[in-house]
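Entry for the shared binder. Reason: the reviewer on the internal report wants the predicted structure included alongside the sequence.
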Amino acid sequence: MQNLQKKNKILGILGGLGPMATVYFYEMLTEHTFAERDQDHIDMIISSRATTPDRTAFVLSESDENPLPVMQEEAEKLISCGADIISIPCNTAHYFYDALAPMLSVPMVNIIYETVRFAKSSGAKKIGILATEGTVRSGAYEKVCAEMGVGYEAPDVEYQKMLSDIIYGEIKQGKDADMAKFADVCRHMKEKGCERLILGCTELSLIAKKHSLGDDFIDSLEVLALKTIKMCGKTPVGFSDEMMKFVI
């Protein structure tokens, strides 16, 4: 029998890192895919292995539980179920990207690479990274910024602690983020000369869902959604004009 080219790509979402960000990513993909009927949406399979060892704790050597084997296992499950593309709605998990991607037989979208590329395309010369301490300490954003010639700043220790408290002590616990504290961190980054601020933790993307943050912010989860929709062969809708002009 002649093999026919697969018409629709199946997306595998390696989620649960954390769960609410995974839910929002699914919602974002659905909202921003042009569709006139159910069948026009992306076929997807979602893994939400919430018990995956903490990424930041491992990066900071506070835990010897390596998340990589669990992430590989879940990614391979997604592929065995038919996934053609893998997206991970978690920035800190991309510390393991260089190790995980070669293990897989399908492409995996890199949220950090695409976010920095979008920031550069927007004309930003210097960006501030709002992320977990694990993402910051891993140098994942710093490395890509250096490769692309984009200036990079992370919060000073005091402000990074405030940001970590927002992520782990508030959002991951299902509480509202302290917006006064968040504003203090953002003000600090602006004082360091950052033109655009990256929501480099998908928990922080949940702030953007509830609050209008303005054009100074770039939501990494939104960039990941745009790239994923395009890679799945669908038409994105409802993004900002700036994002819609972004060449994937």
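Summary line for the report: Residues 227 and 248 are 7 Å apart (CA to CA).
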